[in-house]
Amino acid sequence: MIHERRVYHAAPKKVGLVVKRFKEHNTRIYERLGIKTIGAWTVIVGEANDQFIYLLEWESLAEREQKWGAFLQDEEWQRVWAETDKDGALVRYASNELLQPVAL
């Protein structure tokens, strides 16, 4: 099992719009493509409150490569992204980490 931590650094005053896009569109598209979301968060105390963070779960790197590639090419996602970014990008930049569990 692999988890992916994705962090979207929102444009100024747009973190709420990033959350809205995720809730209204990404989660449904992810479900259709078989992408499992574990949870999502915004920062209330920390270095930056412009972040939207979420975790995805993958069976393997191969599954991630196949399904994430399908998401990026998905026609519905392309339309949503264009529409929600038409007045300027909601996300300044994104970062991600692929995490592997360790036995404790």
What does this structure look like?
- The chain has one domain (2-93): Alpha-Beta Plaits.
- 40% of the residues lie in helices and 32% in strands.
- The protein contains three helices and four strands; from the N terminus they run βαββααβ.
- The chain has helices at residues 15-33, 61-73, 75-84, and strands at 2-10, 36-42, 51-58, 91-99.
- The protein has a four-stranded antiparallel beta sheet.
- It is globular.
The CATH first-level class comes to: Alpha Beta
- Uncertain runs: none
CATH architect. name: 2-Layer Sandwich
Structural class: alpha+beta
Give the averaged pLDDT, no decimals.
96
- Give the helix proportion (percent range): 40-55%
- Arrangement of strands in the largest sheet: 2-3-1-4
Anisotropy-based shape: globular
Proportion in β-strands:
25-35%
* Main pleated sheet: 4 strands, antiparallel
CATH-defined fold name: Alpha-Beta Plaits
Distance separating the two termini: 16 Å
Q: Total strand count, please?
A: 4
Count the helices. How many?
3
